[in-house]
């Protein structure tokens, strides 16, 4: 419980803030875990099944067909190949009946004449060659359809991946705030992989199965109606069994997909928050959570694989029983002269041709449903509202930019029903240093996000040199700003490339000069390759403070008209901070700057201090004016320096 009259040193305040921020990150991880564990209200089976069933299957198929425009000819080739393959596959058993009956008649004739039978061109050789030709044609069309379908599926997959990549670049920040990184990655990778795989295997198998089953049953009815009815009775039982198993498999597959997403999210969180995890000795707890998620995924995969692999043996057992029954009945018809040897073996070939697709039909349909649900999730991202496009005739700020920034009755809320800012107004005159202070969550960073148009305001307006920023393109607006954030982000590349990031054409001398001004030149020269040292894996080969110095050098090199410093010196020591502050004072001379700071010692010389609380500016003025007012700023300042 804080006490009103308690005095704290600067170090104590910073330590408490660090602990609160770290604990907040851990609470977010725990909350994510809780939400994952909670799942969806209602029946687990129902929710899992719904996750793998598309809301509008026909609409998804129609949209997929539209997306695949330009590749329709490939699908047409696939359909033609399937038709030709089916004709050859159905014709082969029928021709084999004629071939076997012919050979059997020639064998009997030779036996009756006391001659040795041998296959010649006129005694079955020609027919054998034709039979081989039929299967060769079937193989050729099967190969053609497989390669063409793979090409169609992969090209469609590529189009969807490109669409996702382009969409992610134009989505507003609120989308990323509302969705977990693991879920977005899963949709962009796992879901699209599933679509490609099912198109190449599931859809192709189903199209082939339809033609094979229809053709086989027609030929079976042509040979013997009674045997066909017996087969259809067993096939119906097999279909019913497959449907029951497939329904359960669909639920288990949905659980497996959810488990993959949960595990991906936990791993991503553990990697990005590894420093905090180590700081609070939570390695065992974090590892336990990942082990638990891995075990849940393993259990889900085991159940899914068991159910999937159970269906085939059970159905094939029924098929074998049907074959035994058909063999007994068929032998009777053979003895009675109602069937020949050739037609009986052809009938059994048609049984094998029809049985396998029938037993796999329900499983294939479930795979297609799951794939449609996956692509529907991809379409959900593609249908997300994009950032508002830039105006067709954008306004431009007169050059050179003076740097006058005005907030005029700005309203904003992350949730439209819960406004955060109701009426925010202030003016930053050219060359002024504007400090923004307040407790964590007061809206300081939100104010900067609105200024940079990372979020769009709900009312009022923001102007730069009298020009409404909403009437400008985002590129033109942001070209006037340089940002140094608390989270120092560096790209993979050399130190020189990172300093020159966003400043194309910078010379090495300019890079070195910016580094010297930011007090970063000395440590760079201690690196193995100096400015050509490679930074990779989140720049873990340098310290957090050194990363922040590099980001400061990056902004110094860009030499923007307006500066935004979000706790820019939070990760450097006091001596380096003084040097950076001196460099910043030289840089900000004549430039408008916005400084978010918890260390009030760095902003006492500001021309304007904005004190924020719950998104609202509750006080504004100079350091002396706010101290004299004895309000929130004075209380905050006195708590650090009393």
TrEMBL record:
Domain called ABC transporter: residue spans: 405-639
Pfam families cross-referenced by the UniProt entry: ABC_membrane, ABC_tran
Lineage, opening ranks: Bacteria, Bacillati, Actinomycetota, Coriobacteriia, Coriobacteriales
The keyword Transmembrane helix appears for this protein: yes
Cellular component GO terms held in the UniProt record: plasma membrane
Protein name stated in the entry: Fatty acid ABC transporter ATP-binding/permease protein
Keywords, alphabetical: ATP-binding, Membrane, Nucleotide-binding, Transmembrane, Transmembrane helix, Transport
Organism from which the protein derives: [Collinsella] massiliensis
SUPFAM superfamilies: ABC transporter transmembrane region, P-loop containing nucleoside triphosphate hydrolases
GO molecular function, one term: ATP hydrolysis activity
UniProt topology in membrane: Multi-pass membrane protein
